[in-house]
């Protein structure tokens, strides 16, 4: 009898947890984006500084390489660290 009561209590607790999880997941924004896409948030922190970047050929935002994008925005890119085949994939 005790085992039956414990099993019922465990089922009730698990179902309560499942309902709580379902309610939380609908209210959470799950949109993800890489940091390069959010570069405008970081521009004030880069102003007046020498910047080094670790990039490869996939480091692009809307088809524009992040190095070109930051230089066009006035960021002083002084060093580029890239794999052996180059940061543009050449």
Automatic annotation (TrEMBL):
Residues 51-90 form the Peptidoglycan beta-N-acetylmuramidase NamZ N-terminal domain. The lineage of its organism: unclassified sequences, metagenomes, ecological metagenomes. This is Peptidoglycan beta-N-acetylmuramidase NamZ N-terminal domain-containing protein. It comes from marine sediment metagenome. InterPro entries: NamZ_N. Pfam families: NamZ_N (PF07075).
């Amino acid at each position: 009898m005790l085992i039956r009561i414990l099993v019922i209590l465990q089922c009730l607790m698990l179902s309560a947890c499942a309902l709580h999880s379902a309610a939380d997941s609908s209210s959470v924004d799950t949109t993800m984006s890489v940091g390069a896409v959010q570069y405008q948030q970081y521009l004030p922190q880069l102003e007046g500084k020498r910047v080094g970047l670790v990039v490869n050929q996939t480091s692009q935002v809307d088809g524009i390489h992040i190095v070109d994008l930051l230089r066009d925005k006035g960021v002083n890119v002084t060093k580029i660290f890239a794999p052996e085949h180059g940061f543009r994939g050449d």
